[in-house]
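Example 3.2
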Amino acid sequence: MTEFVFPPAPPEPPKRRRVSRVLVVWIVVTLLGFGAAAYGLGTVVFGYRSYRVPGSAMSPALEQGDSVIVRVLGGEEVHRGDVVMFDRSAYASPSQPGASIFRVVAVAGDTVACCTAGGLSVNGKAVAETYLSQGAYAHDPLATTPFDTRVHDGQVFVLGDQRGNADDSRFRGVVRTSGISGLVIATGTVFRPSPLARTSAFTDAGLPGAPFEDTTFSGLRWWLAGGVVVFAAGLVGVIVSAVRSAGRRRRAAAAPPVR
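Structure, written as tokens:
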């Protein structure tokens, strides 16, 4: 009787390595955190500027030396009551070069005058300027300098809150809106902003158009801080998962084959 001898079975092909689901989850978390942080940082860098107030003409809203956050003007309409930053070359009668910060009190089409019944009037309506300084310059003769100006398209009329110590549109003329670089929205820093109070003086006087309200900046610090935290947590998770997966593969390779 002939005995047949069969060759040994070929070795099993190596199993295809599977990517750990946990590792994939951590990679996704890392990318989400990076995206959130990048969005917050990019918006802050390209949409806002930090500026230090050089003088006291906007006291008490802004004091000399205050750090302010300025939203870069990106098509937003400027309203009465907005505090704006602009280059002095934008004045009708330019002064020395540099940036100024003042409050808009009249826009295109307005007639602004002082001093009707002792105060400011826009289009014949008296404006109760509750934001004005009551300090040392409040009773300076400059605070009640008379003027009567018609504002045309592409222009605004700006005044300082400390009117007795402000080189503003009363002396330099209207400001071209093309020269306005941004709107002051807060004092402080990116992570500790203090929103600038919005005045209702002009709407209370029956004039349309409330001051600009920024609803973006307050959330950006959470995007930035939260994104960094999520990114860091995800990166740690990726590293830990990768190390564990590598350890499991080494142990599997070192184990004797099952016969």
